[in-house]
Amino acid sequence: MSDVSGTTPDLDLDARLAEILQRIPYARFLGVRAELAGDEMTAVLPFSQHLIGNPSLPAIHGGVIGAFMEMTAVAQLGLSQLSSATGLVRQPRTIDVTIEYLRSGRPRTTFARATIKREGRRIANVQVEAWQDTRAAPIAALHGHFLLGAKDEA
Predict the structure, then answer these.
(1) Can you give the pTM of this predicted structure?
(2) Residue 58 scores a pLDDT above 60
(3) How far apart are CA 154 and CA 150, in angstroms?
(4) What is the mean pLDDT of residues 33-42?
Protein backbone atom coordinates (compact mmCIF):
# COMPACT_ATOMS: atom_id res chain seq x y z
CA MET A 1 0.00 0.00 0.00
CA SER A 2 1.41 3.39 -1.03
CA ASP A 3 0.71 6.82 0.34
CA VAL A 4 0.28 9.99 -1.74
CA SER A 5 4.03 10.45 -2.24
CA GLY A 6 4.35 6.97 -3.76
CA THR A 7 6.47 5.49 -0.95
CA THR A 8 5.35 2.66 1.22
CA PRO A 9 4.71 3.58 4.88
CA ASP A 10 7.22 0.95 6.13
CA LEU A 11 10.04 2.37 3.99
CA ASP A 12 9.19 5.84 5.27
CA LEU A 13 9.39 4.64 8.90
CA ASP A 14 12.69 2.87 8.20
CA ALA A 15 14.14 6.07 6.75
CA ARG A 16 12.90 8.12 9.70
CA LEU A 17 14.31 5.59 12.16
CA ALA A 18 17.69 5.78 10.41
CA GLU A 19 17.46 9.59 10.66
CA ILE A 20 16.80 9.40 14.40
CA LEU A 21 19.89 7.22 14.93
CA GLN A 22 22.03 9.42 12.64
CA ARG A 23 21.34 12.36 14.97
CA ILE A 24 23.27 10.55 17.72
CA PRO A 25 27.04 10.69 17.03
CA TYR A 26 27.81 7.87 19.49
CA ALA A 27 25.27 5.63 17.72
CA ARG A 28 27.18 6.20 14.48
CA PHE A 29 30.49 5.42 16.24
CA LEU A 30 29.12 2.16 17.68
CA GLY A 31 27.44 1.16 14.41
CA VAL A 32 23.96 0.93 15.96
CA ARG A 33 21.15 0.21 13.53
CA ALA A 34 17.50 -0.69 13.96
CA GLU A 35 15.09 -3.05 12.27
CA LEU A 36 11.33 -2.69 12.09
CA ALA A 37 9.03 -5.70 12.01
CA GLY A 38 5.44 -4.54 12.05
CA ASP A 39 5.08 -2.15 14.97
CA GLU A 40 8.14 -3.47 16.86
CA MET A 41 11.60 -1.97 16.63
CA THR A 42 14.69 -3.99 17.47
CA ALA A 43 17.98 -2.16 17.85
CA VAL A 44 21.12 -4.01 16.76
CA LEU A 45 24.66 -3.47 18.04
CA PRO A 46 27.01 -5.41 15.75
CA PHE A 47 30.08 -6.71 17.54
CA SER A 48 33.33 -4.87 16.91
CA GLN A 49 36.66 -5.26 18.67
CA HIS A 50 36.62 -1.65 19.91
CA LEU A 51 33.55 -2.45 22.08
CA ILE A 52 35.53 -4.77 24.39
CA GLY A 53 35.96 -3.38 27.90
CA ASN A 54 37.54 -6.41 29.58
CA PRO A 55 39.88 -8.26 27.20
CA SER A 56 40.56 -11.07 29.69
CA LEU A 57 36.93 -12.33 29.56
CA PRO A 58 36.35 -10.83 26.84
CA ALA A 59 33.26 -8.74 27.55
CA ILE A 60 31.59 -5.72 25.98
CA HIS A 61 32.14 -2.58 28.05
CA GLY A 62 29.22 -1.85 30.39
CA GLY A 63 29.10 1.78 29.23
CA VAL A 64 28.61 0.62 25.65
CA ILE A 65 25.71 -1.63 26.69
CA GLY A 66 24.14 1.15 28.78
CA ALA A 67 24.47 3.72 26.01
CA PHE A 68 23.09 1.24 23.47
CA MET A 69 19.99 0.66 25.60
CA GLU A 70 19.53 4.40 26.15
CA MET A 71 19.73 4.98 22.38
CA THR A 72 17.17 2.21 21.90
CA ALA A 73 14.77 4.02 24.22
CA VAL A 74 15.34 7.34 22.45
CA ALA A 75 14.76 5.74 19.03
CA GLN A 76 11.54 4.07 20.22
CA LEU A 77 10.29 7.37 21.65
CA GLY A 78 11.27 9.12 18.45
CA LEU A 79 9.21 6.64 16.45
CA SER A 80 6.22 7.16 18.70
CA GLN A 81 6.47 10.95 18.27
CA LEU A 82 6.75 10.94 14.49
CA SER A 83 4.18 12.88 12.59
CA SER A 84 3.86 12.13 8.88
CA ALA A 85 3.72 15.86 8.10
CA THR A 86 6.48 17.28 10.32
CA GLY A 87 8.83 14.44 11.24
CA LEU A 88 10.52 14.30 14.63
CA VAL A 89 9.71 17.42 16.64
CA ARG A 90 12.67 17.22 19.04
CA GLN A 91 14.95 14.42 20.12
CA PRO A 92 13.78 13.05 23.51
CA ARG A 93 16.14 14.03 26.34
CA THR A 94 17.24 11.70 29.11
CA ILE A 95 16.13 12.65 32.62
CA ASP A 96 17.44 9.56 34.42
CA VAL A 97 18.15 5.90 33.78
CA THR A 98 18.73 2.88 35.96
CA ILE A 99 20.61 -0.03 34.45
CA GLU A 100 20.73 -3.57 35.76
CA TYR A 101 23.64 -5.60 34.38
CA LEU A 102 22.46 -9.21 34.51
CA ARG A 103 25.35 -11.05 32.81
CA SER A 104 28.45 -10.30 30.78
CA GLY A 105 27.98 -9.12 27.23
CA ARG A 106 30.01 -11.57 25.16
CA PRO A 107 31.81 -10.60 21.94
CA ARG A 108 28.83 -11.07 19.63
CA THR A 109 25.95 -9.05 18.21
CA THR A 110 23.63 -7.56 20.83
CA PHE A 111 19.94 -6.76 20.39
CA ALA A 112 17.60 -4.51 22.39
CA ARG A 113 13.90 -3.74 22.42
CA ALA A 114 12.20 -0.85 24.22
CA THR A 115 8.71 -0.72 25.69
CA ILE A 116 7.07 2.61 26.43
CA LYS A 117 5.28 2.03 29.72
CA ARG A 118 3.74 5.48 29.94
CA GLU A 119 3.94 8.49 27.67
CA GLY A 120 2.54 11.81 28.78
CA ARG A 121 2.72 15.23 27.18
CA ARG A 122 6.16 15.99 28.65
CA ILE A 123 7.59 12.83 30.26
CA ALA A 124 7.87 9.21 29.13
CA ASN A 125 8.65 6.09 31.16
CA VAL A 126 10.53 3.46 29.12
CA GLN A 127 11.93 -0.01 29.80
CA VAL A 128 14.57 -1.67 27.61
CA GLU A 129 15.95 -5.21 27.56
CA ALA A 130 19.19 -6.19 25.82
CA TRP A 131 20.08 -9.75 24.86
CA GLN A 132 22.49 -11.68 22.68
CA ASP A 133 21.64 -15.32 22.00
CA THR A 134 18.04 -15.47 23.17
CA ARG A 135 15.62 -12.83 24.35
CA ALA A 136 14.71 -15.04 27.32
CA ALA A 137 18.24 -14.53 28.70
CA PRO A 138 18.78 -10.74 28.83
CA ILE A 139 22.24 -9.36 29.54
CA ALA A 140 20.94 -6.01 30.85
CA ALA A 141 17.77 -4.04 31.55
CA LEU A 142 17.16 -0.30 31.63
CA HIS A 143 14.37 1.74 33.20
CA GLY A 144 14.37 5.40 32.28
CA HIS A 145 12.49 8.67 32.22
CA PHE A 146 12.75 10.96 29.22
CA LEU A 147 11.70 14.54 28.53
CA LEU A 148 9.63 14.82 25.38
CA GLY A 149 9.61 17.80 23.05
CA ALA A 150 6.27 19.58 23.12
CA LYS A 151 4.88 20.27 19.67
CA ASP A 152 4.56 23.99 20.46
CA GLU A 153 8.27 24.20 21.42
CA ALA A 154 9.59 23.17 18.01
Answers:
(1) 0.84
(2) yes
(3) 7
(4) 88
